[in-house]
Design brief:
5-stranded antiparallel sheet; 43% helix; 3 domains; Beta-Lactamase; alpha+beta; Helix Hairpins; 5-stranded mixed sheet; 14 helices; Heat Shock Protein 90
Amino acid sequence: MVNGQLSTEFEPAERASLDEVRRQSAKLLGDPMMRSVADSSKAYISVLNSDRQIVFANRAMVEAFGQDLDQAIGSRPGELIGCRRAVAAEGGCGTTKFCSTCGSAIAIRASRTVGSNEEECRILRETGDPIDLRVTAAPMTVDGEQFTLFTAVDIGDAKRRRTLERIFFHDVMNTATGVQGLSSMVRVVDGGEREEILGLLEMASNHLIDEIQAQRELLAAETNDLAVRIEPVNSNRLLNEIARVYEAHDVGIGKSVELNGASHSVLFLSDPTLLGRVVGNLVKNALEATASGETVTLKCEQADGRISFSVHNQAVIPAEAQLQIFQRSFTTKGEGRGLGTYGSRLITERYLDGNIAFESSEGSGTTFTVEYPFVTSNDAG
């Protein structure tokens, strides 16, 4: 091994020497039939040694990630793909705490003990868009030496389409059912009760329109078709409007949304619709995790050329869930649910030039923070 005892939080970090990897690669490349078959496939195919290093990769895999076979040899799958966790970790792919929830790392580990294993994973890349993969890892033996056959298929488009459809139909059907029920009640009541139901009907109708608009924005964001419209925004006015909207939302029943007294009231330039969608998503998620009688707190701070918005609630996110926050494929709300944090990150990073982070611990609760450049009309001029 060439790296010594590197630290790891999942799989071993040590690697075989480059000479050893090249020897293994030459053994596999000596079979022209295998290379021909692998190169004819559109799937990403590679062969890993016992240290999870690539000793062979087909044309589709090396070309998809901007390298050639000589460059790929000796790296691990996440490093070739450009996983931001792998790039940042001293031990590389498979050695971070996040790797314990990665489908690729799980499949490779399982292939050594239970045989062929298939998983799905979403890899957040250092450069370029995230990638959704269906991966298969299977043991293979060549001249008595053990390897892992690792195959990955990009399922991003199909998965995005299925997820959006599930969310759209779920949310719209729930709201439409409420509208239908309230409409029926209007026919049989009168007086003050009728006025109350009409108010609820208007609220439900607005909610239905908002759900449709949210899904349309998310689809446009993922296809790079979302328009950004910059105009003046008052920070506390925006937060107060969001608080009123979500206290009246069904997730806010019996709960409070309040503005922190120390919140900065400042005027800056941004897209109020997209910014409202980001913070609104975080408020909605916070309310879903908040018990009846508790409060979600909003705050704005401005300093050092940046403006930040924070959303705090008293609940704590489970440790395993914390590792997967912001991933499109992860949700704690059931199949096809829970794109709030993913959508907030997508809009924040791709369209508003900002970043998003969170902290969650016993005693302090959970705080999500989004931060953006503080731009005023003087700066823009």
